Amino acid sequence: MDEIRGDEIQGEATRDGDVQGDEIRGTARGTAPVPLSVLDLVTVGQGRTASQALRTGVEIAQLAERRGFHRYWVAEHHSMPGVASSSPAVILAHTAARTERIRLGSGGVMLPNHAPLVIAEQFGTLEAMAPGRVDLGLGRAPGTDGATAAALRRTDRLNEGADDFPQQLMELTRFLDDDFPDGHPYARIHAVPGPVQATAEGGVQSPARPPIWLLGSSGFSARLAGVLGLPFAFAHHFSAQNTVPALELYRDSFKPSTVLDAPYALIGVAALAADDEREARRQVLTGALSMLRLRSGRPGLVPTPEEAEAYAFSPMEREFVDNWLVNIVHGTPDEVRSGLDDLAKRTGADELMITANAHGGEARLRSYGLIADAYGLPDA
Fold first, then answer.
1. pTM confidence score
2. pLDDT by residue (tens digit) across 20-39?
3. Average of per-residue pLDDT across 98-111
4. Which residues lie closer than 8 Å to 317 by C-beta, 6 or more apart?
5. Under a CB-based contact definition with an 8 Å cutoff, are residues 270 and 329 in contact?
6. Which residues share a beta bridge with 267?
7. Buried b or exposed e, range 32-68, using 16+ CB within 10 angstroms
8. CB 30, CB 375: distance < 8 Å
């Protein structure tokens, strides 16, 4: 990754002195070993509408806020009938109007799909709506298949977008901080809402802006986040075999910055608690079958537990599902608590971001409530 030119990028991509580590680091509550957060894919089950899924997302965010989860993030995906989170900024604006304290963010925005100025404007708007509680998580994958990515980006040169990610990140950061140098082609362009409003005559706009997180499922973003001194979020929920190596690479590469004086890494964890083991197994099997269909090129709505139980898996499909379920922490509340405790200890993650994928919103809401109870989180 020599092309990243670490010293140069660090000087440009971390010029955000108003963003401090305290805005990034969470606080463990109850008996949880680390802060707990929520990642929502806004899943749509068979017989359910996107409207229902989005209402459930708000209910999950409200429950998470009431029970002391640190943040609620949504992930950008496209062309997947069972996932309604194609527009994170829109969902976050809707959620911001219905919550008061919990941090809200993208987990993440897939930056190569967008012009950096557009993302700076969207998240500057969110920051103005919910000051001091917006996170901007960025990924370099498309969040979809190649054909859909080409339609999003209006080009079929998809590798070019991923290779240009460090440059796009620097451009986005300069738009957020409004600090392109004199002579730069974008020096007279301003992301609004943003810091330029504080320097305009009579301006009182806060110069604060959302902290940037880098997301990844391999070593590239881990090392880049370390070089830049940024917080890092790793997708353990679908790349478990790479979790420990990626976190080690992040910590080994870390250079203190104006953002963080020490590494801070969260991991996304698939976890679902139910009143008994059998019910938990029924619920997570729906997500596993949905993933099997997605990986087989047949994406659809999340199947019901009844359909998933009755599905005739081939030996190869059964192997895929069994391997997928190994990395989902599921069972009774005590079993899930034990699994999360073990994962936090084994990886050294600073925060666990839990995603509960199941057919119905009721099961997901129930799971977050049971996990909160298992850790003795407050119920304000």
1. 0.92
2. 577 899 999 999 999 999 99
3. 96
4. 292
5. yes
6. 234, 352
7. bbbbbbbbbbbbbbbebeeeebbebbbbbbbbbbbbb
8. yes
